[in-house]
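Recall the central idea of this unit: under ordinary conditions, the amino acid sequence of a chain determines the structure it adopts. In this exercise we apply that idea directly, starting from the sequence alone.
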Amino acid sequence: MRLRWGAASPQERGPVVASPADPRHRNAIGSYSGAYAIYRALAVATRALAPNHRPDLTDTAPAALIGPHPQWVEPGRIVSLDPYGHLVGELFAEAIHAGLDVRPTIAVTTRYIACSDGATEGVPDSELASLLASHNDPQKAAAEIVAAAQAGGSRDNITCLAVFVD
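Accordingly, the structure predicted from this sequence is:
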């Protein structure tokens, strides 16, 4: 897969492909998801996740848009992040639909949660996201997630930390 770093548009530049799915398409060194690649490898090794699993990017979008900025395409400039990495589901949908394993290379978000497995055992991911989005106070969001996990029948310790960045 050809990559023209510094091209003026994402279509001219092409997607960053770091997937091990088909080495012929790779044009980047490293892996998707950074440190989460370790968790993915463990999930594959324990057969909790299929080795060929691809994330569903439907209805995913960054919480805030960044750029584009002129310096992203200036000759001689070094860009240390993939300027289109948070928009791959939109910008490279056709390539993804055709079977290319393109995934986000950066995440832009304003709300974070760290939960124990007790919280995630009792609350589906979609509900976690909804609970997190429905509050302006991180303490209230965390308390509601814990309450939902208890109501959802979690049998493990339940801990949740919510952080909002404005």
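Helices lie at 10-13, 36-45, 88-91, 93-97, 117-122, 125-133, 138-151.
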